[in-house]
Amino acid sequence: MAIRLKNDLLKVIIKLAAIILFGLFTFSVVNVVIFYRYILVDSYYKSDEFVDKVAELTNDLERYYGKYTTVNNRNQKSQNEWLESFDRKLKKDMNKVNAKYNIKIASAEKNKDDDLVKSLKEEKEKEISKIKKEYSKNVDQLKKSFRFNSLEEYRQINDKMKEWKILKYYLIDRTSGEAYTNITKDADSVDIDKYIKQNSNYALKLPVKFNDNNYREYYQYKNISKIFEEDNWKGYFIVPKQTDGYNTYNAEYIRYSFSRQRILKQVILGSIFFVVSIVLAIVFSANREEQDSASGNLEKLYMLIPLEIRMFFILVFSLMYLYTTEKYQYMMQYEYLTPAYLIYMVITIIYSFFMLINLKEFYFMFRDISILKLQCRRSVIGMTIQLIKDMVYYKDAAVKTVIRFLSMFFVLVSGFVIYYQVTGIIGILAVFYLLIYFILMPIFTFRRNEYLNKIVKATRNMVQGNMSCKIDEHNSDILLKELAHNINNIGEGYKKSLNEQMKSERMKSELITNVSHDLKTPLTSIINYVDLLKSGRLSDEEKEGYISVIARKSERLKVLIEDLFEAAKMTSGAVKLNIEKIDVTALLKQALAEFDEKIEKSSLIFRTNIPAGNIYLNLDGKKTWRVFENMINNILKYSQPGTRVYIELIELDESVKIIMKNIANYEMDFDVEEISERFKRGDKSRHTEGTGLGLAIAKSILDMENGQLRLSIDGDLFKAVVEFKKSKEKEKEFV
C-alpha cells in the first residue's frame, strides 16, 4: 500500500533528508576513491610511505658504508685517473720541447757554433723547468680539490646518518663479516634476534626473497633488495617500541590504522545512506501528485537557462569541486569532524544536489525527444541558428558568406579536437559536428552545382548569339541569383557597350577632324605667307612682319606636334617616370612664378593658399611640373576677365590635394567626363589657341603617378582637383 503524505512539512523533511543522505553517500564515495589505498593495505608498515623511508635509509647506508668507509681510500680511483692524464700530458709536452730543440742543437753542433749550442740548451732547460713547475702546480691543486670534496661529502653523509635515530638498522657485510648498526656503538655486542623479540614493533628482513605469500612485499622492496645483493649485505630495519624522543613511525602506524578504520566505516555508512536515500526518493515519488509547486517552479526556471550555459555551469562547478577536494585532501586524511571537515561535507552535499538535478533533467530530456528538441531550440546554438535563418530570410549575401566561413572554421576546430584526442563533451561535439557537416555539405554543393550548370548552358547559348536566353532566377543562393539576373540582363549591357563603342568611333572621327584642323590652320598660314614673300613685291617692313608671323605659326605648329607625340606616348605607356623625392609646395610655387608675367598681363586676380612648410612626395618632377603648367594655362585661357582664381594646397593624412577654381569665359555645356579626353575643348567656338590636349596629358601623367584628376562644374565655376596619394613606406624614407 502506497504511503500517502498529508503533511507538507513532512514532505519537505523527507525530500531534504533524501538530498542530504545522497550527498553523504557522495561524500563517502569521494573519500573511498581518494583513500582507497587504506582499504588495499592493512598496515602502515606495508604502505608505500614506509617503503619510501626504507629506500631513503638504504641509499644513505650505501653511501656511508660503501663509498665513505675511510677518508683515505675514497675517490682514489678517480684521483689516480686524473694523475695518469697529467703524466701523459707532461710526457707529451716534454717530447715536443725535446723535438723542437734537438734539431736546432744538432745543427749548431754540426756548424761548431758552441755559443749557439749553449744558448739553445739553456732555453730548452728553461722550457722543461716551466712545464714541470706547471705539472707540480696542477697535481697539488688536484689533490687539494679531492681532499676538500671528499671531506665535505663525508661530513654531509655523516650528518645525515646521525638523523636516523628512530628507524634502527642492523647490517652485515657478508664479504668482510663486518656489522653496521645504529642500535649501539658496538655492533658485535648486539644479539639482533633477542633485540627484535623484546624491543621492536616491526622488523623488516632484507633482502626480501620471493614466495607465494609475499608477492606485494617482494615487488615493493625489489630495488632495495637489489642494492643489498649488489653490496652483499643482509640485515634488518627495525621500528622500536620505545625511543628517547617522538616515535614518528609508531605515530604514523596509529594514524594509518585510524584512517583505515574510518574509510571502512564510510564504506558501510555510504551504502546505508545510498539505500535510505533511494527508499525516501521512492516514497516521495509515489506522492508526486501532491508535491508542492515551489520546487517544480524552481526546476522550470532552471530549465529555461540555455543548455550550453547549464553545461558550462556543470563544468565550472565540477572544476571548483575538484580544486576544493585537492585542497581538503590532506586535511581529510588527518582530521575528523573538524569545522573544515564539516564545511567540505556541506560543499559535497550541495554539489551532489546540483549534479542530481542536472542528471534528472538530462534523463527526461533524452527519454522524451520533444523535450530534447525544445531544449535545443532554446540553446545558444539553436537560437544562433534561428537568428541566422532569419537573417538569410532577408536575402543578405554577406550573412551567407559569414556562415560558410564559420562552418569551415568549426570544421578546422573539430579536426584539431579529434587529432589531439580531446575527450569528454568537447570531443563528442566535435565528432557530431563533423558528421552533420559532411552529410549536409554534399547536398548543398550538388544543388549549387546544378544551378551553376544551368547558368553555364545559358551563357553558352549567348555566346552563340542567342541573347534572348533566360535563366530561372528562383534560387536560395543570393549570389547565384544575382549572377542569373545579371546574365539575363546582359543584352542591356551589350547595348551599353555598343553605345560606348560608337561613342569611341565618334571621338576618333572628331580626333581626326580636330587634328586636321589644328595642323592645317598654322600650316596654311605659313604657306600663304611664304607665297607672298616669294612674290618680291613687298617692302622690307612687310617682309619682316610676314617672317614674324611665319615664325609664330611655326612655333605653334611645333607645340602642337610635340603635344601630339607626348599624348601618343602617354597612351601607349612608352613614357618612363623618374621618381624622386619632390617638394610639392615648392614645385607649385615655382610653376606660378613662371606664369607671373602672364598673370600680371591678364586681368585675373589670383588667390593662393599654399602652406609655408615642405610637403614631400615621390613623384616625377618634370611630369608633375607639366601637370601644373597645363592647368594654369587652361585657367589663363578660359577664365572670365576680371574674376578671381583660387589655388589651394591641402595636406591630409593619406593624400595631398591641389584645388584650382576659376570662372569660365564661355558657357560650359559639355560633359565633364569628356573634357579630359584628347582634343576635347570646352570652348567649342575655338576662340582661343590650344590643342585640347592639356587636361588629357595631365590626367595621363597623374594616372602614371597613382594620382587622380577630378573635374566638376557648377554653373560658370570650373573646379579641378589634383590628388596625390601618400605612400607609408615612402614617407618613412623621408623621416
Automatic annotation (TrEMBL):
UniProt membrane topology term: Multi-pass membrane protein
Bilayer-spanning residue ranges: 12-39, 267-286, 307-324, 336-357, 401-419, 425-446
Signal peptide: none
EC number, as in UniProt: 2.7.13.3
Domain named Histidine kinase: residues: 514-711
Pfam families xrefs: HATPase_c (PF02518), HisKA (PF00512)
Keywords: ATP-binding, Cell membrane, Coiled coil, Kinase, Membrane, Nucleotide-binding, Phosphoprotein, Transferase, Transmembrane, Transmembrane helix, Two-component regulatory system
Record GO cellular component, one term: plasma membrane
Top-rank lineage group of the source organism: Bacteria
Gene3D superfamilies tied to this protein: 1.10.287.130, Histidine kinase-like ATPase, C-terminal domain (3.30.565.10)
Reactions catalysed: ATP + protein L-histidine = ADP + protein N-phospho-L-histidine
Example GO molecular function: phosphorelay sensor kinase activity
Compartments (UniProt record): Cell membrane
Coiled-coil portions: 91-141
Full protein name: histidine kinase
Organism, scientific name: Clostridium oryzae
Upper classification of the organism: Bacteria, Bacillati, Bacillota, Clostridia, Eubacteriales
